Amino acid sequence: MTRPIPQPGIMDIALYQGGASHIDGVSNVLKLSSNENPNGPPQSAREAIVKAAQELHRYPSTDHIELRTAIAARFGLDANRIICGAGSDEIIAFLCQAYAGFGDEVIYTEHGFGMYKISARAAGATPVQVKERNRVVSTKAILDAVTDKTKLVFIANPANPTGTMVSQARIRDLIRDLPPHVILVLDGAYAEFADDYDGGAAFVEKNDNVVMTRTFSKLYGLGGLRVGWGYGSQAVIDVLNRIRGPFNLSGPALAGALAAIEDTHFAQKAKADNAKWRAWLAEALAELGVPSDVSKANFILARFASAEEAEACDEFMKSKGVIVRRVAGYGLPYCLRITVGDEAGCRRVAHVIGQFKEGTS
Ligand SMILES: *Cc1c(COP(=O)(O)O)cnc(C)c1O
Predict the structure, then answer these.
(1) What domains appear along the chain, each with residue ranges and CATH number?
(2) 321 close to 348: Cβ distance less than 8 angstroms
(3) What whole-number distance in Å separates Cα of residue 146 and Cα of residue 118?
(4) Which of ligand 1's atoms lies nearest the C-alpha of 216?
(5) Measured between alpha carbons, how far is 191 from 220 in angstroms, rounded to an integer?
């Protein structure tokens, strides 16, 4: 008797570890582990979702034209070359499924986001990890790893969990030197938090083998709604649409995202609040002897003297009801990733880390 056998690669996938959200026996928990907007979703999106509940018996739009048009108008893009997904995670999965299979290689970097490896394996391809330089993506290491089998390269800019960015000049040179059969994916999940940054849209306009992914989960505070999108050449988007389920986004998801993208006031305020408290938190922790790289995202990567100290601080914070993210699985055992909260959240986490440092010094 034989039992059902999954496709090659599937059993090599380690389950994605999400940010914890509760601590047994502790109330008033502060969750800073998943890079969520501390102020929640826009009121405009909540109202649109409630209204959309009246139409739940209807199937949603299959082409997402209204949302794509609004996104295009907001960022000055071509709506025909936008594809929407159930989170940008789904766009990452479409790219791997469509372009990488058995025997193909997918490049991601040392501290790169976990979904690249998972989606590459799910497609049967081989994930290839390349080194970073001091927690910054190295485009040289990426080029050195490219082979005839390489199909996709994933770079998050700003990156998660480091918060660092690769310069536009480096990305431009990488695109110039990449073989044209390789797709470069610029993951812009945190693009809105960086100043004067288009997420890579200009590179997409000039290069048929560059794709940008974006999301409503971070700046827009809609991680629970599952809406993301991709922008690429017409040829690539046409390919991805063939494997996209016709109803991959629900009616409420489309309505909520549409309201959010039109709520430019919400976006401006979320960005400004984040920048202010990100700088405050980084400085407060630095004064406590916990440095971090300059972050361009909505979290900071706090660096400790050792993995032991990082773990001890994490345990101490947990005992005080503060949940942050351990990133040992991202090759950063001596770090903790801390989402930028609201003012009260930032003050609380700095206070608790201060208590920890006092207790150990
Ligand atoms: C959060 C995140 C995403 C995915 O977010 P979705 O909720 O699936 O849109 C993609 N890339 C990076 C680097 C992220 O941190």
Answers:
(1) 10-39+265-360 (3.90.1150.10), 43-263 (3.40.640.10)
(2) no
(3) 19
(4) 9
(5) 12
Ligand 1 near 88 CB (within 6 A): yes
C-beta 87 within 6 A of ligand 1 = yes
Residue with the smallest CA separation from ligand 1 atom 10 is 189
User: In this predicted model, what pLDDT tens digit does every residue of 182-207 receive, in sequence order?
Assistant: 999 999 999 999 999 999 999 999 99
In this structure, which residue's CA is closest to atom 11 in ligand 1? 189
Q: Is the pLDDT reported for residue 31 higher than 90?
A: yes
Residue 75, number of CB atoms within 10 A of its CB = 16
Q: Which of 212, 215, 295, 340 is the pocket-test mutation for ligand 1 (most atoms within 8 Å of CB)?
A: 215
Q: Assess whether the C-beta atom of 217 lies below 6 angstroms from ligand 1.
A: yes
pLDDT digits (tens, 9 = 90+) for 149-190: 999 999 999 999 999 999 999 999 999 999 999 999 999 999
State how far the Cα of 289 lies from the Cα of 285, in Å rounded to an integer.
6
Its pTM stands at 0.96
